[in-house]
């Protein structure tokens, strides 16, 4: 399933926002800063762990995902710290509403567990 074998052991952090954030321009702002952080390789100390990002615009909510090369707990924790630290825009946006969720899902669990999306969610507040 994974085009690059180096990413098959990875996973993703996902930020889910309500549709209202799109109309207020917050989804666009969050996407812009996510892309800039990925291009600038500022999400982890080596700049190698985050390998991509994607935005999914849906009918009732939007999702932005950061793709990671591995599911190594230490590496994921480092990226999670940056995302939750308040330096990165995800933490600032997520603290504005209870309608926001943040979760991590590894690729292997995603493939084995069907398509149930992020059952365990982490609040950023």
Any chance you could write out the topology, listing elements then pairs?
Blueprint: E1 11-18, H1 19-23, H2 26-39, E2 50-57, E3 61-68, H3 73-84, H4 89-94, E4 101-106, H5 107-112
Antiparallel strand pairs: 1-3, 1-4, 2-3
Describe the overall structure.
By secondary structure, the chain is α+β, with helices and mostly antiparallel strands. The chain has one domain (5-112): 2-Layer Sandwich (RNA Cap, Translation Initiation Factor Eif4e), CATH 3.30.760.10. It contains five helices and four strands. The protein has helices spanning 19-23, 26-39, 73-84, 89-94, 107-112, and strands at 11-18, 50-57, 61-68, 101-106. The chain has a four-stranded antiparallel beta sheet with strand order 2-3-1-4. A hairpin with a 3-residue loop joins strand 2 (50-57) and strand 3. The longest helix is centred in the N-terminal third of the chain and has 14 residues, at 26-39. The chain is globular and about 40 Å long. It starts with 10 loop residues before the first strand and ends in a 13-residue tail after the last helix. Mean pLDDT is 78; it is low at 119-125.
Rounded to the nearest angstrom, the distance between the terminal CA atoms is 34 Å
User: What is the CATH topology descriptor?
Assistant: RNA Cap, Translation Initiation Factor Eif4e
Mean pLDDT: 78
The main sheet comes to: 4 strands, antiparallel
CATH top level class name: Alpha Beta
Q: How does CATH name the architecture?
A: 2-Layer Sandwich
Low-confidence stretches: 119-125
The helix/strand order is EHHEEHHEH
Supply the number of helical segments: 5
Quantity of strands, as a count: 4
Gross geometry: globular
As for the number of domains, it is: 1
User: Which structural category do the helix and sheet elements fall into?
Assistant: alpha+beta
Sheet with the most strands: spatial strand order? 2-3-1-4
Tell me the radius of gyration.
Answer: 14 Å
The CATH homologous superfamily is named RNA Cap, Translation Initiation Factor Eif4e
Helix content: 25-40%
């Amino acid at each position: 399933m994974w085009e690059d074998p180096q990413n098959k052991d990875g996973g993703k952090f996902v930020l889910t926002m309500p549709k209202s954030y799109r109309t207020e321009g917050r989804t666009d702002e969050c996407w812009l800063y996510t892309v800039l952080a990925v291009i600038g390789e500022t999400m982890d100390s080596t700049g190698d762990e985050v390998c991509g990002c994607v935005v999914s615009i849906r009918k009732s909510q939007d999702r932005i995902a950061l793709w990671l090369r591995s599911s190594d707990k230490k590496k994921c924790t480092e990226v999670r710290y940056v995302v939750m630290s308040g330096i990165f825009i995800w933490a600032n946006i997520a603290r504005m509403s209870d309608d926001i969720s943040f979760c991590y899902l590894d690729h292997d669990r995603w493939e084995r567990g069907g398509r149930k999306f992020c059952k365990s969610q982490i609040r950023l507040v």
